[in-house]
């Protein structure tokens, strides 16, 4: 099913339509601009895996926010109440996959009770809710969402194989990688941005830190984070602005100039682009005296 809203596009495939024994669905979402926050909900007996292709999202589980960036996966375990909290669904391109693991632990995931139980247990290891995805996970999602539209007599076999491979890749990624996966150079850059978030950070100074030309730096940065460095800086500044607006009595103009925006009008434009509301409305809702 495709749903276009003029600026956003969503494609959701419920695989139980293909075979009633398939208790899983896959969604492909491309938000061209921010949307209202995602309401709290649960998936009964099912886990949800989110893979961010481009952009970032903030999800809230058990009153804790998790920032998930491009190239990363996020897992919501069965029956967990989750939402985006007070954060809007950000401009992003991502997949989400919802599956009942226990229902499929023998006929789809593993061979026999012992192996199936072990695979489910490894996936349900809640210590690793956010992790770096392999490029293969992206390829599997790309292929899996197209299979229902293929005219082949072995469609169900392809689906079983891709889902099995997906779940095994999740285990491999969770067990072998963590959030500290960036190259030392790019880690230094993100640290520098955080340490200088109140300054006017130029692309040229970031390129100098890496000893790269601006063109080469922009390419390397975008390959790592799936967004240009300027957009990354703006996102981090808006994240800091949200904290200042909700926890201090600073005016919107004060926040804008504290974060080195050229004007309060430009700050308001950028803020609304990433949060789906004006800084004035945000402060009115979230500032607690």
UniProtKB/TrEMBL annotation:
UniProt keyword terms in alphabetical order: DNA-binding, Transcription, Transcription regulation
All residue ranges annotated as the HTH araC/xylS-type domain in the record? 187-285
The record's GO molecular-function terms, alphabetically, read: DNA-binding transcription factor activity; sequence-specific DNA binding
**Which SUPFAM superfamilies does the entry link to?**
Homeodomain-like (SSF46689), Regulatory protein AraC (SSF51215)
Under the heading Gene3D superfamilies, the entry gives:
Homeodomain-like, Jelly Rolls
InterPro entries given in the database record = AraC-bd, Homeodomain-like_sf, HTH-like, HTH_AraC, RmlC-like_jellyroll
**Which Pfam family, any one, appears in the UniProt record?**
AraC_binding
- The superkingdom listed in its UniProt entry is Bacteria
Q: Which PROSITE patterns match?
A: HTH_ARAC_FAMILY_2
Query: Which PANTHER family does the record match to this protein?
Result: ARAC-FAMILY TRANSCRIPTIONAL REGULATOR, HTH-TYPE TRANSCRIPTIONAL ACTIVATOR RHAS
This protein is called: Helix-turn-helix transcriptional regulator
* UniProt organism field: Vallitalea guaymasensis
């Amino acid at each position: 099913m495709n749903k276009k809203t003029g600026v956003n596009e969503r494609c959701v495939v419920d695989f139980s339509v293909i075979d009633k024994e398939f208790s899983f669905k896959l969604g492909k979402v491309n938000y061209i601009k921010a949307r209202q926050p995602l309401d709290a909900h649960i998936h009964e007996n099912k886990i949800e895996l989110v893979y961010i292709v481009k952009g970032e999202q903030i999800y809230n589980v058990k009153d804790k926010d998790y920032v998930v960036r491009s190239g990363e996966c996020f897992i919501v375990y069965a029956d967990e109440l989750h939402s985006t909290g007070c954060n809007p669904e950000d401009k992003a391109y991502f997949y989400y996959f919802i599956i009942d693991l226990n229902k499929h632990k023998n006929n789809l995931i593993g061979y026999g009770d012992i192996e199936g139980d072990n695979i489910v247990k490894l996936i349900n290891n809640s210590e690793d809710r956010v992790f770096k995805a392999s490029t293969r996970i992206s390829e599997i999602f790309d292929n899996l969402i197209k299979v229902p539209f293929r005219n082949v007599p072995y469609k169900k076999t392809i689906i079983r194989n891709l889902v099995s491979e997906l779940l095994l890749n999740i285990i491999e990624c969770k067990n072998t990688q963590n959030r500290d996966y960036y190259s030392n150079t790019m880690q230094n850059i993100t640290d520098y941005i955080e340490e200088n978030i109140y300054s006017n950070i130029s692309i040229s100074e970031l390129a100098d830190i890496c000893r790269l030309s601006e063109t080469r730096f922009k390419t390397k940065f975008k390959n790592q984070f799936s967004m240009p460095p300027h957009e990354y800086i703006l996102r981090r500044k808006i994240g800091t602005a949200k904290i200042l607006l909700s926890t201090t009595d600073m005016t919107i103009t004060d926040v804008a100039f504290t974060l080195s925006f050229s004007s309060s009008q430009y700050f308001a434009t950028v803020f609304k682009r990433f949060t789906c509301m004006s800084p004035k409305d945000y402060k009115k809702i979230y500032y607690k005296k």
